[in-house]
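task queued by scheduler; priority normal; single chain, no ligands, no partner chains; default sampling; output format set to structure tokens
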Amino acid sequence: MLAFADPDLDDGPRTNKSATTRMCAVTREVRPIDELIRFVVSPAGEVIPDLKRKLPGRGLWISASRQAVAEAVRRHQFSRGFKRDVRVAPTLVVDTESLLVRGVIEALAMAAKAGQVVSGFSKVEGALEQGHVEALIHASDGAMDGIRKLDAVARQNTGNNPELREFPVVTALTSEQLDLALGRSNVIHAALLAGPASKTFLSRSHILVRYRMADDDKTAGKTA
């Protein structure tokens, strides 16, 4: 008797390093893995997100959006996908976002330890003028006046050279979360400098923003 691969489940973490796409169990669309979240079943039988894609066991992939995860819960997609009774917390959508936020905070803290972050309006402005900035970071609850001023400095220092790419502006964290990541108080503005830790922060920030916004720009696919 021939055995066929299950289209919903992978064979475990990183078993196929060449795989760059997976099927979303909700939308049935094949998407890049950076646009998906892997879920596994814990030893206690509870569905948990595997954001780093390293947890043991077979994984079920869902589009990285609140709506898609909510649909998976509503439609009992986890029990069907894993083909067993599993426990799904009613707060899974919120818990997943909280873990994404924690990952972004941890990545920013690592970038700061590596010397790849400067914070404070004056230091950020100076780094922009020197052309050392890979990304701007603003607290999501920061005053618009300072944000506009630094954004203007950024445009001034890139707009005159068409070969310079526009660097990202990250507003995914609150001031309190920036304080936690950088180990200081009242952080509203920061700048990310070049380095591998910075790339990790940007990657994690991207998936958090996608999780929050994908339903609005329809990049998560239809879940009807």
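post-processing summary
- Confidence is low (pLDDT under 50) at residues 216-224.
- The helical segments are 66-74, 77-82, 92-113, 121-130, 144-159, 175-182, 196-217.
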